[in-house]
Backbone:
């Protein structure tokens, strides 16, 4: 990110009216099956409660799930061959969605290893409640692969409540094996009433594959739960 882009972003944010905010996030995750066998179940534990999108499915390769609304979700009713993958979208009231662990099973029996967080890099709002004139912050969080260094290209943009959008210079991120890094990118008061949204896409620089994509929302109202009425 160059300094000019951040100055533009800061200026736009400071030209904006609000009271109470609520954060939400979405994340579409690619799960690779490298177990050596066909899998017909997937199990994912998160560090926060999540729900599924679309609500009624399908969920990637799977037709059914249990655990939506909790921090552990199980998927069934589908097949993912060895060497293939499936992409599933999760939503949460938390600013970020992160995985605690996940694993494949076949007919209920685990195959392959229990895995940690899939390598990723995201940007997200840090807060879930603000008042008019208070400062919001946006942070970068990135995680390496379990057994090797990760290099990502993070593409993202900011959408303002008034419909304007700002495409920000992509960020190249390198993280050591099994490591996680956190970095605050900027902070500024939010003064425009409505929903601010960050949208991101994480690309593995070596393979060019999209590992994860999603966004983070910050809803700002008048402090009494009311949004501005259309003119």
Residues:
């Amino acid at each position: 990110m160059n300094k000019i882009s951040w100055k533009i972003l800061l200026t736009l944010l400071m030209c904006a009216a609000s009271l109470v905010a609520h954060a939400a996030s979405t994340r579409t995750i690619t799960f690779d099956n490298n177990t050596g066998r066909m899998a017909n179940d997937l199990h994912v534990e998160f560090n926060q409660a999540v729900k599924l999108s679309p609500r009624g499915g399908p969920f990637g390769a799977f037709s059914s799930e249990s655990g939506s609304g909790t921090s552990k979700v199980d998927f069934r009713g589908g097949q993912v061959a060895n060497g293939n993958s499936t992409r599933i979208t999760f939503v949460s009231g938390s600013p970020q969605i992160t995985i605690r662990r996940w694993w494949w099973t076949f007919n209920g029996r685990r195959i392959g290893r229990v895995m940690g967080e899939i390598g990723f890099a995201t940007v997200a709002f840090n807060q879930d409640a603000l008042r008019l004139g208070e400062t919001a912050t946006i942070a970068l969080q990135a995680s390496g692969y379990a057994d090797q260094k990760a290099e990502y290209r993070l593409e993202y943009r900011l959408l303002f409540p008034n419909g304007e959008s700002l495409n920000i210079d992509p960020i190249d991120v390198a993280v050591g094996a099994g490591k996680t890094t956190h970095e605050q990118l900027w902070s500024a008061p939010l003064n425009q009433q409505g929903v601010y949204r960050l949208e991101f896409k994480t690309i593995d620089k070596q393979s060019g594959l999209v590992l994860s994509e999603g966004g983070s929302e910050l809803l700002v109202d008048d402090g009494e739960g009311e949004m501005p009425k259309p003119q």
In short: The first helix runs from residue 3 to 14.
